[in-house]
Every structure is written in structure tokens, then in C-alpha cells.
Amino acid sequence: MAMKVAASNSRKAIILAVNLAKLSLILSTMRRTMRTLISILIIASFTVTPAIAADYYTWVDENGVTNYGERNPPGYQAEFVTRNQRFGKPIQPRDETPEPVASNSASDNTSVDPDALVAEERDALRAKIASVKASNCEIGKRNLVQLEGHRRIRVNDDNGENRLLTQDEKQAKADEAREVIRENCVG
Hints:
This protein is mainly alpha-helical. It is built from three helices and five strands. Strands 2-1-3 form a three-stranded antiparallel β-sheet, with no helix packed on it. A two-stranded antiparallel ribbon has the order 4-5. The longest helix is centred in the N-terminal third of the chain and has 51 residues, at 2-52.
């Protein structure tokens, strides 16, 4: 009987030692997990700011200078730009009407040539469209180079989470970039 009690106590001691070893392993794993979690939170705190700053307003002031800001400025018609917006700018004719040229005096008999004013306005519009097309051309070429130069492309989905483009999505984006190049690149 004393032998059974001694064997039972040694079995309990072994089970206790095994359980303590398991507990020690669990605690070390938890410490490692906590360190990893804290590291991820610190890194995320640095990467959240650029993602938030991706939305902005753009407007042109009275001096013709393009401005960018986080808030819609009072007194200006600003365009809100988001990170989900398609690349490139839409080509749209100006909706501004040219101001009439005022005569300096009542005795000034020189007349304004409407054809010259219209030609001037048309040339300005053509120059603006050419500038936008050149910008879209460069963006399309850059996008196509990125799509063809990298096997895996990481993007943000609608929920703001990172994911890899599938081959079909990558091919569709490459086709879209080729179409932008065809429409906007001259020569």
C-alpha cells in the first residue's frame, strides 16, 4: 500500500511538472503575441495619417495658382478629390463665360472683334485640353509600367483593407491603362 501511495505521488508530481511546462510555454507565447500586437499598433498609428490625408480639396485662386487643402475654402469653387477617384482628370470645357471688354471712354469708336475673342477662347480651351491629355497620358503610362512590371499588385479595397489584385483584375486595369494611353497620348 505504501508503494501505491508513493507511485501515485510521483505520478502527480510528473503531471504537475508537465502542466507547469505547458503553462510556461503558453505564457511565453502570450508575451510574444503581446509584443507583436503592440508593434503592429505602433506601426499602424504611423500609417493611418497618410490614409486619412488622401482626401483633399483643390481650387484655383484669383492669381491662377492651384491650391490644395484639407478644407473647402470659403469663396472658391473647390473640387473634392478622394483616393478612390479614377486616375486622370476629366476633360470638360470651361463653363465660365468671358467677361465683356469694357470701353475706356464713350468716344472710343474701336469695335471688338467677336471672332478674335472666340478664337482666343478656343485656343485657350485647346491648350487646357492638351495639358490634361498630356497629364493623363503620363499617368496611363506609369500605371501600365507598374501593372506589367510587378507580379503582385497590392490595392486598398472598398473597406480600406489591403488585398492583392487577381490576374483578371490586373489584366482589366492594364487594358484600362492602354485605353487611356490610346485616347490621350499623341504620336
